[in-house]
């Protein structure tokens, strides 16, 4: 890969992002992680920047015969972003309506599972940092930024370790600032830039968010 940087794991990537985001330390930023992979990263950022951790729930819409290919994304309100190549991938008509319905139900189930005893933290008037472990098509980040922007943060920031250059350009107008460590031309998939890109399971997300909620209630730092 022409000596491109490869992160050891999500923790290392989050630590490097925290370094670049150091100007927000002590300003009580709200770190909004896109589940599941970005939640452990969000925990690192919240600790390093003296901020709060929460999630922003969005989900990609998969192509008919290749669910990993994102033809778009949906947020909890049902707002949908559709990629320009959705037609070519067969993501139209009845299939698209079924996929939207299926993913919206999944988001509602995840909200109940991930934060059953905690309301989403309101980003209104705050520095909101939306984080993911990488951007391929950019669809989920676009949906996440849209849903957070609608809640009127004082500043909206997109932070990712790695992104496809074309996705970065699509996202750029939607955030006040973007922090991206790598935007390589040889981008194929997010996982190619991590030595350890294990799947983050629901149980880990629940544990991190539950622990964060208990810390907030007790007044200790996340």
Automatic annotation (TrEMBL):
The keyword Transferase applies. One of its GO terms (biological process) is methylation. Coiled coil: none annotated. Keywords: Methyltransferase, Transferase. Residues 12-193 form the Phosphoribosyltransferase domain. It comes from the Bacteria. Its EC number is 2.1.1.77. One of its GO terms (molecular function) is protein-L-isoaspartate (D-aspartate) O-methyltransferase activity. This is Protein-L-isoaspartate O-methyltransferase. It comes from Collimonas arenae.
């Amino acid at each position: 890969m022409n000596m491109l940087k490869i992160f050891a794991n999500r923790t290392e990537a989050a630590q490097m992002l925290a370094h670049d985001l150091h100007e927000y330390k002590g300003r009580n930023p709200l770190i909004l992680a896109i589940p599941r992979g970005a939640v452990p990263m969000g925990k690192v950022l919240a600790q390093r920047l003296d901020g709060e951790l929460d999630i922003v729930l969005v989900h990609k819409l998969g192509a008919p015969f290749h669910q990993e290919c994102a033809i778009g994304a949906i947020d909890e309100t049902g707002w949908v972003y559709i990629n320009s190549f959705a037609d070519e991938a067969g993501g139209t008509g009845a299939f698209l309506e079924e996929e939207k319905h299926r993913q919206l139900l999944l988001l509602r189930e995840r909200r109940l599972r991930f934060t059953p005893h905690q309301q989403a933290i309101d980003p209104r008037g705050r520095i909101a940092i939306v984080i993911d472990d990488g951007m391929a098509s950019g669809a989920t980040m676009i949906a996440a930024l849209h849903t957070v922007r609608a809640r009127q943060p004082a500043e909206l920031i997109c932070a990712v370790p790695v992104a496809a250059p074309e996705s970065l350009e699509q996202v750029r107008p939607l955030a006040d600032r973007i922090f991206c460590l790598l935007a390589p031309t040889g981008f194929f998939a997010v996982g190619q830039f991590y030595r350890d890109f294990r799947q983050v399971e629901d149980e880990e997300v629940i544990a991190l968010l539950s622990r964060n909620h208990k810390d907030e209630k007790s007044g200790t730092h996340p």
